[in-house]
Amino acid sequence: MTSTLRPPPPASPRSPAVASPAPRSPRRGRTWQQALRRDWQLYSLAVLPLLFFLIFRYLPMLGNIIAFRRFKPGGSIFGEYWVGLRYFRMFLSDPTFWEVFTNTLALGALTLLFCFPLPIVLALLLNEVRARRFKRFVQSVSYLPHFLSIVIVAAMVMQLTSIEGTANQIVGLFGGDPVAFLQQPEWFRTIYVSSEVWQTVGWGTILYLAALTTIDEDLYEAARIDGAGRLRQTWHITLPGIRPTMMTLLILNIGSFLAVGFEKILLLYNPLTYPTADVVSTYLFRMGFQSSNFSYAAAIGLFEAVIGLILVLSANLISRRTLGTSLW
């Protein structure tokens, strides 16, 4: 029995074939006006911070013009007349400036050497503690100095290092003679760095402890199966896991390398300790407010800011090229 193939019936004009829908074009992103209109409540939260930075950070930068102009108190806030690079040549040829610049580098290097790695060590130690109450107690005790005023910290340091203070009482127990620590230049850097460590190390562990919580526990389990001990787990898992946080904080600390704690040094130092305690910020303060040489002080401040900017850009570039981690 043979069968013949029949062609399909033609489509009726009343029931046209349904065509497949044309592919949609990719949705275009909203313009910033539409995003602002939709999420204006969120953007309004940024108004006050932006105003703060505009008023107290960016507008004062206009005053850097007096580093190139002769400024006289009572005259124009932008200086009387143009003097070019006169004030820059003055402090670059001033032996006192290079002495305070060397002190700044020394204090900045010591602060970075001790205050940067110690929070990492403390965070790693706290991460190993399993007793929650003891861990919270240590965290609270280590965080507390950060909330103390610089004036209170300086007063405590003066009391501890005075002739009748705790430090000299300990020296007396071993048969030594009392030492006027804050009147001897060779002791100032030790006292300053020690107080910085006590005040900042606990607070610096917060970000590292938060970064440690993001590390996958399966990595530690696999390392234990492979026979890795706690030291190898820390070296191959924990430290690489918090490396982005470490590099970000390192870049920020390098940016403030020359801006060594101005307030604390100003409260602790005296003319006897100038050879090791006088830094760029305190020298700038004396030149600007005590000597009323505002143009000279502005030139020094601009020089310090440019050096800090170069350090931040260089550290960020090196970190991005070598480790692949950077601020931008």
Could you give the topology of this structure?
Layout lengths: L31 H7 L1 H5 L2 H12 L10 E2 L10 E2 L3 H7 L2 H21 L1 H12 L3 H12 L6 H11 L5 H8 L11 H28 L4 H9 L4 H12 L1 H13 L6 H7 L5 H4 L2 H11 L3 H29 L6
Antiparallel strand pairs: 1-2
Question: Which features characterize this protein?
Answer:
globular; 2 strands; 17 helices; two-stranded antiparallel ribbon; mainly alpha; 328 residues; disordered N terminus
Question: How would you describe this structure to a colleague?
Answer:
Helix content is 63%, strand content 1%. It is mainly α. It has a two-stranded antiparallel sheet with strand order 1-2. α4 (86-92) crosses α17 (294-322). It starts with 31 loop residues before the first helix and ends in a 6-residue tail after the last helix.
Distance between the termini: 80 Å
Low-confidence stretches: 1-5, 12-20
Beta percentage is under 5%
Strand order of the largest sheet: 1-2
Q: For the report, how would you describe the main beta sheet?
A: 2 strands, antiparallel
Helical fraction: 55-70%
Overall geometry comes to globular
The secondary-structure class comes to mainly alpha
Order of helices and strands: HHHEEHHHHHHHHHHHHHH
Mean pLDDT: 86
**So how many helices?**
17
Q: C-alpha Rg, in Å?
A: 31 Å
Number of strands: 2
